[in-house]
Amino acid sequence: MSQEKIRFAIIGNDHNHAYNHVRMLVNAGAELACFYTDKPHLAAEFRQLFPDTPLAESMQQILDDPSIRVIGGSAIPAERAGIAIKAMQHGKDVLADKPAVTTLEQLAEVQRVQAETGRLWRFYSNEHWDRRCTIRAGELIQEGVIGRVIQTTGFGPHTPRVGQRPSWFFNPVLSGGIIGDIGAHQIEQFLYFTGSTTASIVSSTTSNFGHPDFPDFEDYGEVSLEGDGGLGWFRVDWHGPESIQVPGDIRLFILGTDGYMEMRKYYDPAGPEGAEHLYVVDRTGAHLVDTSTIPLTFGSRFLADVRDRTETSIGQERSFLITRLATEAQLHGRKLGVQHARATVVAGV
Known about the structure:
The protein has about 350 residues and is α/β, with parallel strands linked by helices. It folds into 2 domains: about 5-120, 3-Layer(aba) Sandwich (Rossmann fold); about 125-295 and about 330-335, Dihydrodipicolinate Reductase, domain 2, CATH 3.30.360. The protein is built from 12 helices and 14 strands. The strands form 2 sheets. Strands 13-12-11-10-6-9-8-7-14 form a 9-stranded mixed beta sheet, covered by helices on one side. A 5-stranded parallel beta sheet has the order 2-1-3-4-5, with helices on both faces. The radius of gyration is 20 Å and the shape is globular. The termini are far apart.
């Protein structure tokens, strides 16, 4: 197996997941060749973290460089599909951040170009592959610890940090909306843990309960799913208190035929100190599982896929399925208006 060093570039660092891409790929042995943004303040921010990385003169300069094999990054969500399409048309593989598209038309074009070029376009969920508790849960499920998985329940509260967000964050046309954005993590994990290869949205709802100054913003979303391997439900929101000083008190529950699991990914308010806690309740009792030594391998597996044209990190079709479900749930769901949401709260319904 070839082990040549893979050079990659970042296009767009409008969201901090671009730095997740850099860290993960560099730690896996790749070389960060350069980056590009057309926003001087974001260029300065990137250089503070990676001072030796050159800023490309244009996106085209990166696309025309045959030594760069992978494009990562996290541009404004509405721009991500276009960047990915151009990257694939120039012979690059793509590490896609969520939301990877904001419309179903964008997704159809991404799929068309991927099939036409044969390039990799792979969805990366940091709530799964950056969390040791989630990785260990997958290993234990493969071992049959809780039997066959039949349902997942996810809670994805996030801290809004309103004063630190750019204007596009509050516009669902540009941001992809709450389900297209943070809901995509939940959908990826539902598919993974239930083993579903096909799935559909049963229902979805979004609303704005607490941000009247941004009437188009959605601070709450919930989705029910049905797959060929099980059922799922999740809630995502932008109501996490900033006092916890983490992205959010994000949790995942997995129900099996012989037990259940809970992952407390970033915070455990009533449990032991630290994060990435995995609780397992099986036929022998309740256990807090040590996940501290679990390796994070998505980056190395993705690079192996680039070298060998394989699917050891995440499959191409699952990447598309995650993205389609998240986009459908976002665009086709029930939307409660701000006034409706207020009335519901006041009435106590």
